[in-house]
Amino acid sequence: MHSVKKINEDLYWVGVNDRKISLFENVYPVERGMSYNSYLLLDEKTALFDTVDSVASLQFLENVEFVLGDRELDYLIVNHMEPDHCANIGAIVAKYPQVKIVGNIKTFVMMSQFFDFDIDSRKVVVKEGDTLNTGKHTLTFVMAPMVHWPEAMVTYDTVDKVLFSADAFGSFGAMSGNIFADECDFENKWIDDARRYYTNIVGKYGVQVTNLLKKASALEISKICPLHGPVWRKNLGYIIDKYTKWASYTPEEKGVLIVYGSVHGHTENAAEILAGLLGDRGVADIEVLNASTNHYSKIISESFKRSHIVFACATYNMSLFPPIQSALHELAEHNLQNRSFAFIENGTWTPASAKLMSEILEKLKNNKIIEPKVTVKSALNADSYAALEKLADAIADDIKA
Ligand code: FEO
Fold first, then answer.
1. How confident is the model at residue 295 (pLDDT cuts 50, 70, 90)?
2. If phi over 0 gives left and psi between -120 and 50 gives alpha, with beta otherwise, what is residue 169?
3. What is the per-residue pLDDT across 256-287, written as a single tens digit (0 to 9) for each?
4. CB 166 near ligand 1, within 6 Å
5. Calpha distance 307→288 (Å, rounded)
6. pLDDT(2) > 90
7. Which ligand 1 atom is nearest residue 201's CA?
8. Ligand 1, atom 3: nearest CA belongs to which residue?
């Protein structure tokens, strides 16, 4: 049975929700599932915006068939060729063989790698600023390279002011009956998944996202239709402000994240005590994460949110404790900038983790290190506790400044 939602008089959501998935891209935990959004415009010509992941082909094709009724599908607009959106292009072509496929030159290179149907006779190649008239609506194509793949583009309906934004403005999480962000308590129930989605999937490409935001700022936008998560029709400034901060690596708030990697509990103890000392100094909304039990995607997401990040790590095999090493490498891969870092190291014979951690993070731009680096030898003692107090003073002062 179909499962579609009306967005505008002639625009429908024909996507799917996936609650069986546990790891998006086989790496990111998605406890709330995923949505794969696809949209269908019923103008004089009909146009489908992207398809969905292969896990939900039957539901998707049924949705498209229901909305089309006895009409043909004239256009398939392909904003993004990653398989969570392109997997059903072949099925659409098989079902609607007369369909014209709209994409840019890079779209069709990728399409020919994923599919072996006759692309050339169907393709409509567009470039920046090109338009397609479907009757009442005119669609304008805007290139968005590396948001999140090189071929990515977004499509703007100049009549209804709808932006089909591809991966931009997306989120982890399946939708539950409400398709609009203003209907589903986004600021409480969705923002953490939206941040984790953005920072991990697109966070590396802040420059390119900023370029897209600049282009979008020149458009009058009434609705944003992303490829994952809720559609935006109210309070667009809220999510655009979040994206502006994330893309420019600007912290959302002055606050402290403490991430620890602890083998036997003594490094954890130091992290907990630092959190308490910071709280005593008036620092609010401190987050403490155990790197062994929190997926690195959460550490990245919380690091993008906050201004100050403390890593506490045991020395392990004369290197870093693996969960911290992995998290730091991922942070470096995601280009985190404009942050203040501090370090707590532990080691029973040769503590070395503070130096190793700073070596990974020093590749990143516009970050600073807050001193002192705290060294714990096996377990906290009076000297290392005093060093923690100094570090708490320094962080609290830096936040207040
Ligand atoms: Fe949701 Fe980059 O694909």
1. very high
2. left
3. 999 999 999 999 999 999 999 999 999 998 99
4. no
5. 14
6. no
7. 2
8. 82
